[in-house]
Amino acid sequence: MYLRIGGALRPGLVLAGEINGWSKTETEAGIDGTVTIATVNAVAQYYPNPANGFFISGGLGAGSMEVEIKAPGFGTFSDNTTGLGYQFGAGFDIPMKGTFSLTPFVTFFGTAGGKVESSDEKLDANVVQFGLGFSWR
């Protein structure tokens, strides 16, 4: 999932706040394991040629990762880490009717420099996200 709110600073440059998240649960031998990664970043989106809709983006902020394991008869173990959040990507605004646009994009986001709370060990994570955004100008 992702959510972005922002606006154009000038033609060809958009500044925004963005939240990215990813979660996956797998079950093996009755044990459930879930990993969740989230970032909250300040993002700059640059259009080299604003008329054609192509953009590149990058951002920095805060990131977190949580791991949870549920084992029947043994209870639930969970741990998390927080650190630097980052992202970079590219996309293309496809104008539709009026001020509405469809925006296919790819974003690489993750966390760095986080330490697990229970053990103080370093734990980083990253995700490649393909998506379709909707925007209004």
Notes on the structure:
- The chain is an all-beta fold and 137 residues long.
- It has one domain (2-136): Porin (Beta Barrel).
- The chain contains no helices and eight strands.
- Strands 1, 2, 3, 4, 5, 6, 7 and 8 form an eight-stranded antiparallel sheet that branches.
- Strand 1 (2-10) and strand 2 form a beta hairpin.
- It starts with a strand and ends with a strand.
- The mean pLDDT is 91.
Summarize the structure in short.
The protein has no helices and eight strands. The chain is mainly β.
Say what the CATH topology is.
Answer: Porin
In N-to-C order, the SSE pattern is EEEEEEEE
Taking all residues together, what is the mean pLDDT?
91
List unreliable stretches of 5+ residues. none
| Secondary structure: number of strands | 8
Helix content: under 10%
Mind describing the biggest β-sheet? Answer: 8 strands, antiparallel
Proportion in β-strands: over 45%
Distinct helical segment count: 0
What structural category characterises the helix and strand content? mainly beta
- Distance from N terminus to C terminus (CA atoms, Å) equals 21 Å
Oligomer: single chain
Under CATH at level 1, the class stands as Mainly Beta
Write the layout of secondary structure elements.
Blueprint: E1 2-10, E2 13-28, E3 31-46, E4 54-71, E5 75-92, E6 94-95, E7 100-112, E8 125-136
Antiparallel strand pairs: 1-2, 2-3, 3-4, 4-5, 5-7, 6-7, 7-8
